[in-house]
């Protein structure tokens, strides 16, 4: 990248979300870690999500110490890391999934791998691969200036996570610095599928909307079409991670079977977000 | 005694900054879901510090429950192996529950009560922080869940039983390296999920702001007492103070009172496991590089892409790939010196203190003793070294017995093993 400013930070994300809104539905956002079950398998899996109903995919950059993830994603991260996944593989996953579908692909990870790699270098390489942005849930807004400068220079969106415990003035500060969309963590807790989506989600979304025009996507806890429909009634996007990871884990090495499961779940959830 | 206060927070105006930075280290790298809770801890601590009733209650507990001040013991027979220098031990092992950990735990337990939270989670490595936390929860009627790496639950089985006897739930952690790092990960997850009614009673001077400062302040009493005691006993300040560093809480508690004494060297002893060059160690300041782990920037054992590498030490309490940010700051500034001590050197020091002075130290503290032997030899007969004996060794008797072949029928000998025999390697084999 030349370092020129991109006024349209996150434009690809916003247009995907705007398209969904124009269709009077919520967008479906999928998550899978890169390198899981293998680098090639992960590329196929991310591509399958985008081909089967996901409007946006978040590619996880696996971390040795994923403290914000539950056991399902940690298991997948461990498999990916044992398989030797590198940041270059994550970037390639973004590149190929985006190139195959033209849809927005983000990276979601922890701050240390990005900090260690170099924020500018990471942002540049991710942008060159066609990446739309990055989510760094353990980088709170007050520590994020260096990253945001790098992301902005590369034309990447920085998606911040907000929580039910975030007070209104803090929400305003966070949404003012974020771009692409706002990730509303609907439950207090780590990632993982749950029986019901938290009641806090709807009021959190309403409080976020009072601070920003950015679309608001809800994550943490959605695993089936019914929940997706429920969230889609009040959110601009429904984020699903662990449920997809679980399907691939359950396929136990049979990639084709796992991909078929992913496609089926993505299609089911895509129906759900249209029902809401 | 009544004129001696035990809760002695550091005066304002020094590190950390308002954002929790010690120079380039520290900060607050936490998920948004925890920001409100961590800010609440910081705000409550500020209020408590300004409240004479808080200090009075903590002082009362530290005096009549913990047994402060802890003694300072000179160990001349041990010191003969330290080049003839005088060696003094700050006896945190004689605190109630058997280590320094109780200082911080009682302070945070009072904060927990002030915040109105009925439940506490904590991590533990050697089990000493877990035992202290379970103890305080029993005392204050708080629900208590302790996360402990599965490997550590085995090598510190006595402390698991103690925690359960005290009414705590002990959860063995099977992820990652199944040691302290992973116990912290799991405790963080619990905290995120249950933050409304739960305080994370963090056990070392690391983690997100305000924990490095708060834990340090609750342990400052160690150095404040020791500084006064050694001046009474030796007639002068020591040439060096030595403490083991895992996360760094007992070391920072000792060091802090000597920061402004330029003639006193501050020496932290890290766990070098099988040697820093072996790749199997927990010598974070010797071999790590700056990064983020468990909510703050400090030195971290990591690979070139920021994945945390698995540490190793025979000592569960030092088996950690991070270090408190204030130690990183002291290292970079040159005020602190940090040296690696291998498993074998620590175990030799453990046996030496046991057999020359009748004091069995924790394996963690034995790292500091090994460092003191070297410091004494470097200083010579005129030297004075003050060592923080941070914990007692009861919990480690199974590890030590296997290491030295002390059990009948082990076939490994007469209890005089020299520390580099099969025992040590066998233990290492179990942990990796």
Automatic annotation (TrEMBL), chain A:
InterPro entries: Aldolase_TIM, RibuloseP-bd_barrel, Trp_synthase_alpha_AS, Trp_synthase_suA. Pathway: Amino-acid biosynthesis; L-tryptophan biosynthesis; L-tryptophan from chorismate: step 5/5. Keywords: Amino-acid biosynthesis, Aromatic amino acid biosynthesis, Lyase, Tryptophan biosynthesis. It catalyses: (1S,2R)-1-C-(indol-3-yl)glycerol 3-phosphate + L-serine = D-glyceraldehyde 3-phosphate + L-tryptophan + H2O. It comes from the Bacteria. Its EC number is 4.2.1.20. Tetramer of two alpha and two beta chains. This is Tryptophan synthase alpha chain.
UniProtKB/TrEMBL annotation, chain B:
The keyword Lyase applies. Its cofactor is pyridoxal 5'-phosphate. The keyword DNA damage does not apply. Its EC number is 4.2.1.20. Residues 408-432 are annotated as: Disordered. Gene3D superfamilies: 3.40.50.1100. The beta subunit is responsible for the synthesis of L-tryptophan from indole and L-serine. Tetramer of two alpha and two beta chains. This is Tryptophan synthase beta chain. It comes from Streptomyces boncukensis.
